[in-house]
Design a protein that fits this description.
Helices cover 10% and strands 18% of the residues. The protein is mainly beta. Among the domains are: 33 residues, Seminal Fluid Protein  PDC-109 (Domain B) (Ribbon); 37 residues, Seminal Fluid Protein  PDC-109 (Domain B) (Ribbon). The strands form four sheets. Strands 1-2 form a two-stranded antiparallel ribbon. A two-stranded antiparallel ribbon has the order 3-4. The chain binds 2-acetamido-2-deoxy-beta-D-glucopyranose. 2-acetamido-2-deoxy-beta-D-glucopyranose binds next to loops. Keywords: Disulfide bond, Fertilization, Repeat, Secreted, Signal. InterPro entries: FN_type2_dom, FN_type2_sf, Kringle-like, SP_Capacitation_Regulator.
């Protein structure tokens, strides 16, 4: 079965990479550290959130030790480290090719691992993660 280009690209780019591949290779001066601001420990991740020129659908690790997220729609100094509950959740049902999926699927994955979309429209958004 042919692998959809989107999935293949995402796979090549790595399991944790849910954004465009070159974003993480940003030069250090362009990446401001979030640590200037205190963590909002009781905050809730806002997905997707905007940070710099990226849109993030899950917790991110951009030159930081641990994954974090913004608690506002657009990052403005409010952030928190992600705990188990904070990571992005599968969105059901979602569209993939011409089908509607109501649970994780192996369709299109080269290794037969189950994955899900993080938005309702995989075809358009191409944002996904593996299911545990
Ligand atoms: C961003 O989130 C923080 C923490 O929840 C909140 O105090 C602040 O008012 C929010 N900012 C905006 C513009 O909503």
């Amino acid at each position: 079965m042919a692998l959809p280009v989107g999935l293949l690209l995402l796979w090549v780019c790595g399991f944790h990479c849910v954004v465009c591949p070159d974003y993480e290779d940003d030069d250090p001066p362009a990446v401001e550290t979030i640590i200037h601001f205190p963590e909002v420990k009781d905050g809730k991740c806002f997905f997707p959130f905007h940070y710099k020129n990226g849109i993030f659908y899950d917790c991110v690790k951009l030159k930081t030790k641990h994954k974090w997220c913004s608690v506002n729609e657009t990052y403005q100094g409010y952030w928190k480290y992600c705990s188990e509950d904070d990571f992005a959740k599968c969105v059901f049902p979602f569209w993939y090719r011409h089908m509607i999926y109501r649970e994780c699927t192996e369709d299109g994955d080269a290794f037969g691992r189950k994955w899900c979309s993080l938005t309702q429209h995989y075809n358009k958004d191409k944002i996904w993660k593996y299911c545990d």
